[in-house]
Design a protein that fits this description.
Blueprint lengths: L2 H4 L43 E4 L5 H13 L4 E3 L8 H4 L7 H4 L20 H20 L3 E7 L6 H6 L4 E4 L11 E3 L4 H17 L2 E8 L27 H18 L5 E6 L6 H7 L7 E3 L10 E5 L16 H13 L4 E5 L6 H12 L5 H16 L4 H19 L6 H4 L20 H8 L8 H5 L12 H33 L5 H29 L19 H26 L23 H14 L14
Parallel strand pairs: 1-2, 1-10, 2-3, 3-6, 6-7, 7-8, 9-10
Antiparallel strand pairs: 4-5
Length: 636
């Protein structure tokens, strides 16, 4: 398991819902257990927590989502999906690493202690504090509680440590994907813990948060001397010999004390984004955890009290296409939730407009899935709710083919290619050319500055260099990946034919028209990934050192690689033109884009995506004959 693969359990999921005592089995596991004994109170006297988490862009969107959560039996909703801290990237736009760091909330991005007032942007933090205050007020009216998901201890600007050198904790940057060092504060320092305690207290007075979940040792956060820090174990020498468990428990306790100062009893957890290398370290901490504390989903008694349902941007494998439902995958997750009735439930949405997921959750609330038959009946009932009883079977067939397609792509494992390749390395907008290092600035800048790539330009030019290593390499890797993408496209094209048949009978019932447009776009993105992988494989098998020696012998066949690369080039040009046509004709939003050109970053393509795609095609056509410098041409 790679470090970024392990983030699937971190960024994509919520990790809260931690209680030392777990409830008895419930007749309605989506909602609070034991409702017959009183709202949210089980026979054991302990509530089963049901947490909903979804990014929302406006207060009204959050209000609507929270209302749906309340109707489905939620107890908590996360309020910490906040505007990106783009100011972290502004220190050096040539360093891509802050793009991970600016994705998630931190305590000091919401409340600034006086000691940090000179180093952090007050306006940005005031805006965030107001957002969480307004969201908390909405939840209070709905009878729901607020939860906070972020990362800690998060790195601070270097100016903080220049002014306070004793606060400098561990380096936490990704060595292969950063141009600078990034330091988190040392949480063994009493003055650092004091800042956290006071900031949490102020946050909880503004928004009564009783559950905090933190990612650590990832995405710009880190704990001194952890074995899972990206650069390796490191930190200040003075705290090296302190017991690691004391360091972790001390920080978690500080967060609880801050909440207690505001009159609240909070639960708090850490989750590592570090794969298997930290298992022994985590195990060393668990016995020392105090009530209401957990690490990697386990409390001091070793129980894992959380079951997670749903997907978000990290592990959806459909990036950046919006609203492609994976109904069968979520149904399996819900069945697992029903089988582990002791655990609390965390439900993750990639976007608030998720009618298929809401329909499935309603079925689950009526009757938990106890086996395969229950699960299939619930899927069919959800389809009937959206498209009518007479169309349910056909609608289920469409969902099944979508799940087969996405599952086929997901089976490639490792990092999610549709994020780290298609978006983070700009596969979709960068041209496929044989000499990328020779591109002029006007042919390159529009995508290069948005690549998650910090090392050499040679590495940046390698299409397969993703998160510091080549996820797919060689002819065999390209062949396997290509076959899987072909299967996925076949499933999606079959689903589109089914949608066309359904539309002739029922029109746009169940959102068929919108789903059809988005599946067409997803096909183009899957083809792009296939073409990009194939193109780099051909280049990797090419001899750049010895130009071809051609003879005027008639007839003479050309180099096999020349034919291969010409076919891939033409296929990608046609594919991109088809995608442009979809963007121009679709009445629905098809992909997630930055709200403005100024807000384009490594995770979001700009709203001028059509212009970027057309530019890609022009550059590819302009450099189409550059391959003649590498391969013998056909003479005949």
């Amino acid at each position: 398991m790679t470090r970024f693969q392990s983030m699937l359990a971190v960024i994509a999921f919520s990790w809260g819902c931690l209680t030392a005592a777990l409830p008895e089995a419930s007749a309605e596991p989506l909602g609070p257990v034991g409702e017959k004994q009183g709202r949210g109170v089980a026979a054991t006297g302990v509530a089963r927590k049901v947490l909903f988490n979804c990014p929302t862009s406006t207060l009204e969107e959050f209000r609507a989502f929270a209302g749906k959560a309340a109707a489905l039996g939620a107890t908590h909703v996360y309020i910490s999906d906040l505007p990106k801290s783009r100011w972290l990237w502004d220190f050096d736009r040539n360093d891509p690493y802050p793009n991970w760091g600016m994705l998630m909330a931190t305590i000091f991005k919401v409340v600034i202690p006086p000691e940090l007032a000179d180093f952090l942007p007050a306006g940005y933090c005031r805006k965030n504090l107001e957002i969480v205050r307004q969201r908390s007020a909405i939840l209070e009216k709905l009878g729901l509680k607020a939860a906070f998901l972020g990362k800690e201890p998060a790195y601070l600007p270097e100016s903080v440590f220049q002014a306070h050198p004793d606060w400098r904790g561990p380096r936490c940057e990704h060595p292969r994907r950063s141009r600078h060092t990034y330091y988190a504060p040392c949480i063994d320092r009493p003055e650092v813990l004091s800042m956290y305690r006071r900031a949490v207290a102020e946050l909880c007075r503004a928004a009564p948060i009783e559950l905090f979940s933190f990612l650590t040792n990832d995405s710009g956060s880190g704990i001194c001397w952890s074995v899972s820090l990206y650069p390796g174990q490191n930190g200040p020498a003075w705290c090296r010999e302190r017991a690691y468990a004391g360091r972790v428990v001390g920080f978690l306790s500080t967060i609880q004390e801050g909440a207690r100062d505001a009159g609240l009893e909070a639960e708090v957890s850490f989750h590592y984004g570090s794969g298997t290398i930290s298992e022994a370290e985590i195990a060393s901490v668990i016995p020392y955890l105090r009530p209401g504390q957990a690490i990697n989903g386990k409390t001091s008694d070793g129980l894992a009290p959380v079951t997670t349902v749903g997907t978000n941007f990290y592990d959806c494998w459909t990036n950046p296409v919006l609203g492609v439902p994976q109904v069968f995958r979520v149904a399996e997750q819900l069945q697992a939730a029903a089988q582990d009735e002791r655990a609390n439930l965390s439900v993750v949405f990639s976007q608030p407009d998720s009618p298929e997921l809401f329909a499935l959750l309603r079925q689950f609330r009526k009757k938990p899935f106890r086996g395969f038959t229950d699960r299939m009946e619930a899927v069919r009932s959800a389809a009937a709710e959206l498209a009518g009883e007479e169309n349910a079977e056909a609608f289920v067939g469409v969902w099944e083919k979508i799940d087969r397609a996405v599952g086929t792509v997901r089976s490639m494992g490792v990092d999610p290619l549709m994020l780290v390749g298609t978006i983070n390395q700009r596969w979709i907008t960068r041209p496929l050319v044989p000499f990328p290092m020779e591109l002029k600035p006007e042919e390159k800048d529009y995508y290069r500055k948005f690549q998650f790539q910090a090392n050499t330009e040679e590495e940046a030019a390698d299409l397969m260099n993703l998160q510091g290593f080549e996820v797919i390499n060689g002819f065999s890797g390209s062949l396997l990946a290509g076959n899987l993408f072909n299967q996925a496209v076949d499933h999606l094209e079959s689903a589109l034919r089914d949608i066309a048949g359904l539309k002739e009978k029922v029109g746009d019932r169940g959102g068929l028209d919108r789903l059809g447009w988005r599946l067409k776009a997803l096909i183009c993105f899957y083809r792009n990934a296939r073409h990009t992988i194939q193109y780099q494989d051909i280049l990797d098998r090419t001899d750049y050192e010895h130009p071809p020696v051609e003879e005027n012998i008639y007839p003479m066949d050309g180099d096999q690689k020349l034919r291969e690369i010409q076919i891939v080039t033409r296929n990608e040009i046609d594919n991109i033109n088809e995608l442009v046509d979809l963007f121009e004709k679709s009445p629905f939003p098809l992909v997630e884009l930055a709200p403005s050109k100024e807000e384009e970053d490594i995770f979001l393509i700009g709203p001028d995506i059509v212009e970027q795609l057309r530019k890609k095609v022009r550059i590819m056509l302009r450099h189409e004959r550059d391959v003649d410098r590498l391969y013998k041409r056909r003479q005949g």
